[in-house]
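Structure first, sequence second, as always.
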């Protein structure tokens, strides 16, 4: 088994790396997502590596507060991969439209046991 098959191990590695730079932290909002033994692993961190695990969803970046509120409104348990991809796309577009620092789009990745699907979103095209 390599580290890509063990998202919990990778999540701890990211946490340790961030903590080692706590006196001059990286200004990032990492999210680690994966499947371990068929179960989802979702983690996010603060700037000094404090790991937060959840069962439902995580958000990060400059629009995190806006995205979290929108995600709470849209999310339902037991979504199929197509529904989940569409809902995540709507959440990301809504959040990017409300935050000037979020950029001009995003990429939605939906990870299943069968593979990874990708959807590219574009927003704020002037």
């Amino acid at each position: 088994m390599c580290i890509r098959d063990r998202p919990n191990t990778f999540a701890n590695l990211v946490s340790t790396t961030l903590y080692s730079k706590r006196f001059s932290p990286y200004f990032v909002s990492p999210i680690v997502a994966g499947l371990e033994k068929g179960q989802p692993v979702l983690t996010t961190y603060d700037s000094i590596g404090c790991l937060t695990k959840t069962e439902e969803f995580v958000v990060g970046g400059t629009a995190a507060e806006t995205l979290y509120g929108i995600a709470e409104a849209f999310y339902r348990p037991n979504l199929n991969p197509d529904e989940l991809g569409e809902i995540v796309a709507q959440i990301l577009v809504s959040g990017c439209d409300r935050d000037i620092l979020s950029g001009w789009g995003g990429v939605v990745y939906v990870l299943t046991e069968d593979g990874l699907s990708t959807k590219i979103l574009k927003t704020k095209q002037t």
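Margin note: Helices lie at 7-20, 64-74, 81-97.
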